[in-house]
Amino acid sequence: MSNKYLYTLSVSLLLCVSLTSCFNDDDDDKFDKKEWQQRNEAYVADAQQSGKYITLTPPWAPQAISLVKWHNDRALTAGNLSPLDNSLCDVKYECLDIDGKVIDSSFNSTTYGDSIYRSRPSANITGFWYLVTQMHVGDTVTAVLPAISAYGSTNYGDIKANTTLIYNLKLVGIPAYEVPLGK
Q: Is the distance from CB of 110 to CB of 148 less than 8 angstroms?
């Protein structure tokens, strides 16, 4: 390699490093983590007091509640399958934060069908995991998952620490009712 090439490569790398440092979120400096946590906790408290939601509590994690509002007549889906922890489930969902910002959605997915997210309940956050196992195929819900039922006090990708997640979710199907854990 020539010295000119090495020099150009070195300068390019330094430029890239210095430019990426300029792209750090300046909002992090302005973001009030305590205020965000308080707003999220207040949202959950308001939802609990509204009388619109029932509380689901996983027996293995009693602090990890989910607040759930059913949008269908559960008597009509009561005879349908409910997934096990290791079932393979197809769901359609949209996940929002308390400000209504869409964090994640299955509606751009086409791998398993139109807007389908496929996974085992146990491969998801605690609140989502327990919620899905309490649903029957065909059930549609809005669920409020406090931070402790989601990602807790740590950042996860674009999700800020102490974020309450709001899911609009439908259990579409269970393509594999019981899947061995090693598969």
A: no
Which residues, listed in sequence order, are joined to residue 100 by a DSSP beta bridge? none
CA distance 138 to 72: 8
Q: What is the pLDDT of residues 10-61, one digit of tens each?
A: 444 444 434 334 444 445 557 799 999 999 999 999 999 999 999 999 999 9
User: Which domains does the chain carry?
Assistant: 52-183 (3.10.50.40)
Pick the closest to residue 166 from 131, 137, 138 (CA basis).
Answer: 131
What does DSSP say about strands 102-105 and 66-70: parallel, antiparallel, or unpaired?
unpaired
E-strand spans in 44-162?
54-56, 66-70, 88-96, 102-105, 117-119, 140-145
Spatial CB neighbours of 51, under 8 Å, sequence gap ≥ 6: none
For residue 24, give the H/E element and its range: none
63-107 residue pLDDT tens: 999 999 999 999 999 999 999 999 999 999 999 999 999 999 999
Angle at the Cα of 18 from the Cα atoms of 16 and 23, rounded to 5 degrees: 90
Q: What are the structure tokens assigned to 28, written together?
A: 């992090």
